[in-house]
Specification:
The chain has helices at about 1-20, 30-40, 60-65, 100-105, 135-145, 205-210, and strands spanning about 20-30, 45-55, 70-80, 85-100, 110-120, 120-130, 160-165, 170-175, 175-180, 180-185, 185-190, 195-200, 215-220. The chain is α+β, with helices and mostly antiparallel strands. It has one domain. The N and C termini lie far apart (about 70 Å). The relative contact order is 0.16.
Amino acid sequence: MNRKLKLIVVLPILIFISACKIDFNGDLYTSDLIDVAENGSEFTLPMEINFQVSSCDEDLTSMHNTLSGYFIDYNFLKCGTGDDFMSYVTSRVQVPLTNDQDSFNKTNNSLVGYLSKKYDDDPNIYVYLILNTGLFSNLSDYVESETFSPLSLEESKFIVNLNNDLNEANINVYPSYVDSKPIVWATNYQLGKREKITISNSNVSSAHLQSNSWTPIFVFLM
């Protein structure tokens, strides 16, 4: 009888603390993408991250100290309940926008970043989300030590708010959700000045990012 009682009590606790994910929400501007791809400029851009925790009532000091080593200018904003009724810490960080993934990896100061790149004999600009695999491995080890489960990006949400600050922008978005609508083919969008679209990744692109350190978001047609 006691044994059964222990199983009933312990199992929910293990289930409660075993899950962990991290979501990302950032902004991009079309003029910045051109500047970086064509001139080699580099920027840091604001992004909000949501990191799942077991409870907002626990002492989160150690977690904040740890996460500050994986992002630029890490600033805690709040802790609250998400749409899935789980607890999430929301923090604001800065992430790099670069045209050189090797340089991004060597700098080694941000878990994720954006890559805006042109290729020889192709006038278009290709925009990717990129991952520092060394930092990801270290963060996953930390998460596993705290929750008994490694960090996975497959369930993570990567949201990009693309703002057009040019007269017009012509882009092809890879399969994802655009303004909450799913697209299964590369789809063209033409943006007028000050127009914006919100691109949210699919699970496939998240898995590709974790496995390959990059995943395509869209192509800026020039």
